[in-house]
TrEMBL record:
Its cofactor is FAD. GO terms for molecular function: flavin adenine dinucleotide binding; NAD(P)H dehydrogenase (quinone) activity. Keywords: FAD, Flavoprotein, NAD, Nucleotide-binding, Oxidoreductase. NAD(+) binds at residues 189-196, 282. Belongs to the class-I pyridine nucleotide-disulfide oxidoreductase family. Disulfide bonds join 45-50. Residues 359-469 form the Pyridine nucleotide-disulphide oxidoreductase dimerisation domain. Binds 1 FAD per subunit. This is FAD-dependent oxidoreductase. Residues 7-334 form the FAD/NAD(P)-binding domain. The active site is at residue 460. The lineage of its organism: Bacteria, Bacillati, Actinomycetota, Actinomycetes, Micrococcales. FAD binds at residues 54, 323.
Length: 479
C-alpha cells in the first residue's frame, strides 16, 4: 500500500473543499484532494446540480418567451416534435457546458504543484488517516488536518427504492438526460428541486403533475406569494396535488404509474400515469461508508456530521464543510464554509457561522423567486412595528425591464421596520430577481435604509429600478 503525508487532505471535490485546496496549495501547503468519481471533478454544483439545471431552466424560459411572442404574432403554434428536439438540443448544450467547466476545474488545481489530486473512495481508518481505494489500488494518506466535503445525494422514498426499474423513475441527476422529453411527467416533492423542474419541463412542453405530501403549497412563503407561483405554474400546465402520500410506484417499461393517497381519504388511492417520474424528496448526507467511527466523528440522527460554529467536528483536526455538515444546502454557503475553515487554519479563527446575516436564496422559476430576511408573515410575528410594500410586477410603471423581456408575471414585496427604516426582508418574484436580491441583502447587512434604497440612482432600464417605486408605497401592516 502506497503512503502519502500531507498537511491537509480534503475528502470530496465540493465547493468549500476545492476552494480551500487551491488557496492552501498556492500558499505552499501540501494538499491532497480525494474525489471518488472522474465525472464529478469540480463537485455537484458544476456537474449535476446548479449550473446544468440552470442552463436547462434558461433554455426553457427562452422557449416560453418565444411561444408568448409567437402567439402574440398569431404565428402557428410549435409542434410536439419541435419540443422534443428543443429539449434534446438544450441537453446537448448543458453537456458541453459541464465538460468545459469540469476541465477548467481540474486544470485550476492541477497547475498547483503542491496539490495532489487523488481519484478513489476515501475512508477514515483512524482520526487523521485516510485510506483511498480505486479498484485493487490502495493509498494511505496521513494529514494534520482533514476536511470532509462529501456532500449529499438524493433521498428516495422507500416506495421508489424498492420499485422495479425500467428507466422511467428518476432523481434530479438522471432526469436531466431523460430521452425523449416526457409528454407527461410526475414530480414527487414540491421543494426547490420539484418546483424548478416543474417549471422547466412545463416550459419545454411536458404536462407536469406535482405531488407533495404536505397540505400547504410552499409552506415557507407568504400566501399571496405562494398563490402567485402556483397560479403561474398552473397557467403553464402544471397540476399541483397537495396532501399526496405516495403509496406505490410501478415502472413497467412502457409506462410508470404512481399510486397516492390524499389526506383524509386515505382509503381512496388514486393513480397517475406518466412517461417519467422524478423524485425530488430531499437529500441525504454521504457519510454511510466514510469510517467516521474510526475517526471519532459524530453524526446526528439523519447522518449529517455534527459541527460547531467554526465547522469543527468532534474529532481534533477534522472539519466538515458543505451540505454534509447539515447547514443550508447552497453552493454559496459551502463557499462561506471555506472562509471559516481557512480562517481557522491561517487566520485568527474568529470567523464563524454566526457572522452570516441576510443570506439570500433563489428558486429558479421563470421568473425566479428570490428571498432574503423575513417575509410578511414572519415580520408580523416578530412583534415589531412593520411597514410593507407589495406591487404586482405588471403594475410597476418605473420598471419597464419585464415588459422589454416579455415576462411580466410576479410580484415584489418588501417589509421594513417602521422604527428604524431598516429593511427586514424582501421577496422578489420577477425577472432578474436572483441578481436584485443580492443588492437588497447587501443593504440589509450594511444598514442601508429603505429610504436610501428608494432614492437610489439605478441604471435604466433595469430591474433594480423597481425599488424606486415599490419602496415609495410602504404602508403600515393592517391586521
Ligand atoms: C438539482 C439541484 C440543483 C441545485 N441548484 C442550486 C443552485 O442553483 N444554487 C445553489 O446555491 N445550490 C444549488 N443546489 C445545492 C448545491 O448543489 C449544493 O449545496 C452544493 O453543491 C454544495 O456541495 P458541497 O460543497 O457540499 O459538495 P459537493 O459539490 O456535493 O461535492 C461532494 C463530492 O464528494 C464526493 N465524494 C463523496 N463521498 C466521497 C468519498 N468517500 N471519497 C471521495 N469522494 C467522495 C462526491 O463525488 C462529490 O463530488 C442544487 C442542488 C440540486 C440537487
Ligand atoms: N436554487 C437553489 O438554490 C436550489 C435548487 C435545488 C436544490 N437546492 C438545495 O437542495 C436541497 C434539496 O432540494 P429538494 O427539493 O430535494 O428538497 P426540499 O427539502 O427542498 O423539498 C422536498 C419536498 O419533498 C416533499 N416530500 C418528501 N417526501 C415526500 C413523499 N414521500 N411524498 C411526497 N412529497 C414528499 C417535502 O414535503 C418537500 O416539500 C434544497 O433544500 C436546497 O437547499 C437549491
Amino acid at each position: 500500500m502506497a503512503d502519502l503525508t500531507v498537511d491537509i487532505v480534503v475528502l470530496g471535490w465540493g465547493k468549500a473543499g476545492k476552494t480551500l485546496a487551491g488557496a492552501l496549495g498556492r500558499q505552499g501547503k501540501r494538499v491532497a484532494l480525494v474525489e471518488r468519481s472522474a465525472e464529478m471533478a469540480g463537485g455537484s454544483c458544476i456537474n449535476i446540480n446548479c449550473v446544468p439545471t440552470k442552463a436547462l431552466v434558461h433554455d426553457s424560459g427562452m422557449l416560453m418567451g418565444a411561444i408568448v411572442n409567437a402567439n402574440a404574432n398569431a404565428n402557428a403554434p410549435s409542434e410536439a416534435g419541435d419540443s422534443i428536439r428543443r429539449f434534446a438540443s438544450s441537453v446537448a448544450r448543458r453537456d458541453t457546458l459541464v465538460e468545459k467547466l469540469r476541465a477548467r476545474n481540474r486544470a485550476l488545481l492541477d497547475e498547483v504543484d503542491m496539490i495532489t489530486l487523488v481519484q478513489g473512495q476515501a475512508r477514515f481508518t483512524a482520526p487523521r488517516r485516510i485510506e483511498v481505494s480505486a479498484g485493487h489500488d490502495r493509498l494511505l494518506i496521513s494529514a494534520e488536518t482533514v476536511v470532509v466535503n462529501t456532500g449529499t445525494v438524493p433521498a428516495m422514498p422507500a416506495v421508489a427504492s424498492d420499485a422495479a426499474r425500467h428507466g422511467r423513475l428518476h432523481d434530479s441527476t438522471s432526469i436531466q438526460h431523460v430521452d425523449p422529453l416526457p409528454e407527461r411527467l410526475v414530480i414527487v416533492g414540491g421543494g426547490y428541486v420539484g418546483l424548478e423542474f416543474a417549471g422547466m419541463f412545463a416550459g419545454f412542453g411536458s404536462g407536469v403533475v406535482l405531488l407533495d405530501r404536505h397540505d400547504g403549497f410552499m409552506r415557507g412563503e407568504d400566501r399571496d406569494v405562494a398563490d402567485a407561483v402556483r397560479a403561474l405554474l398552473e397557467e403553464r400546465g402544471v397540476e399541483v396535488v397537495l396532501g399526496a402520500e405516495v403509496e406505490a410506484v410501478d415502472d413497467t417499461g412502457d409506462r410508470a404509474v404512481v399510486a397516492y393517497g390524499t389526506a383524509g381519504e386515505a382509503a381512496h388511492t388514486r393513480h397517475v400515469e406518466a412517461d417519467a417520474v422524478l423524485f425530488a424528496t430531499g437529500r441525504r448526507p454521504v457519510t454511510d461508508d466514510l469510517g467516521l467511527d474510526a475517526a471519532g466523528v459524530t453524526t446526528d440522527d439523519r447522518g449529517f456530521i455534527v459541527v460547531d460554529d467554526r465547522l469543527r467536528t468532534s474529532a481534533e483536526g477534522v472539519f466538515a464543510v458543505g451540505d454534509v455538515n447539515g447547514g443550508p444546502q447552497f453552493t454559496y454557503v459551502s463557499l462561506d464554509d471555506y472562509r471559516i475553515v481557512l480562517d481557522q487554519l491561517t487566520g485568527d479563527g474568529s470567523r464563524s457561522t454566526r457572522d452570516r446575516a441576510a443570506v439570500p436564496s433563489t428558486i429558479f422559476l421563470t421568473p425566479p423567486l428570490a428571498r432574503v430576511g423575513m417575509n410578511e408573515t414572519e415580520a408580523r410575528e416578530s412583534g415589531r412595528d412593520v411597514l410593507v410594500a407589495v406591487k404586482q410586477v405588471a403594475d410597476i410603471a418605473a420598471m419597464p425591464r419585464p415588459k422589454i423581456v416579455g415576462e411580466t408575471h410576479g410580484l415584489i414585496k418588501v417589509v421594513v421596520d417602521a422604527a428604524t427604516d431598516r429593511i427586514l426582508g424582501a421577496t422578489l418574484f420577477c425577472v432578474d430577481a436572483q441578481e436584485v436580491i443580492n443588492l437588497v441583502a447587501l443593504a440589509m447587512r450594511a444598514g442601508v435604509t429603505a429610504t436610501e434604497l428608494r432614492d437610489g440612482i439605478w441604471t435604466h432600464p433595469s430591474s433594480t429600478e423597481a425599488l424606486n417605486e415599490v419602496l415609495g408605497d410602504l404602508r403600515p401592516l393592517t391586521w
